[in-house]
Amino acid sequence: MSHDELSIDLDAIQRRMDGALHALRTEFGSLRTGRASASILEPIHVDAYGQMTPINQLGTVNVPEPRMVVINVWDKAMVQKVERAIRDSGIGINPVVDGPLIRLPIPELNEERRAQLSKVAAHYAETARVAIRNVRRDGMDQIKKAKAAGMAEDDQKMWSEEVQDLTDKAIANVDRTLELKQQEIMQV
């Protein structure tokens, strides 16, 4: 067995961890604070035609005024599903259905709403941490397989430390990103 087969692809592990952080930042972008933005809908997917579909693939999303998002759903059969997905998403906005249009009045951010958004942000961050830990576990599994294939004990220890180091840095990034988002949410 060649040495290359006994090495671990740290770049792939790093890319996957970065992917989890990128996904978190996208989700945080959707947590708009008091101003209407089409990005608040980005993390919401609708069970449409047998697959989970982003809302912007089911209708036109517009922001006609600072505190209103409007979705013009193309297929009338999907209006109720889109409305339900928004209600169930935890973004705390009550959709108003008017034929094919769904209006989302963006509420003023009161203390309760800020606390709610902060909890949603924490939930997104925990999901990112879980994704990062799953990548770590995959990396450690690769190391175990390499050990079974003849990797030296010292190499195994070194690779394990490298993977753990990437994990610690990625989790610290998630925590820092969450802290900044929560500060933004709490700014009055």
UniProtKB/TrEMBL annotation:
Key words of the record: Cytoplasm, Protein biosynthesis
Gene responsible for this protein: frr
Biological process, per Gene Ontology: cytoplasmic translational termination
Species, as recorded: Rhodobacter ferrooxidans
Main subcellular location: cytoplasm
Domain Ribosome recycling factor, chain residue ranges per copy: 24-186
Annotated InterPro entries: Ribosome_recyc_fac (IPR002661), Ribosome_recyc_fac_dom (IPR023584), RRF_sf (IPR036191)
Presence of keyword Transcription regulation: no
Matches recorded under Gene3D superfamilies: 3.30.1360.40, Ribosome-recycling factor
Function description: Responsible for the release of ribosomes from messenger RNA at the termination of protein biosynthesis. May increase the efficiency of translation by recycling ribosomes from one round of translation to another.
Native organism taxonomy: Bacteria, Pseudomonadati, Pseudomonadota, Alphaproteobacteria, Rhodobacterales
GO molecular function, one term: ribosomal large subunit binding
Localization annotation: Cytoplasm
Record flagged with keyword DNA repair: no
A GO CC annotation given for this chain: cytosol
Protein's UniProt name: Ribosome-recycling factor
UniProt family annotation: Belongs to the RRF family.
Residues forming coiled coils: none
Pfam families (UniProt xref): RRF
Superkingdom in the source lineage: Bacteria
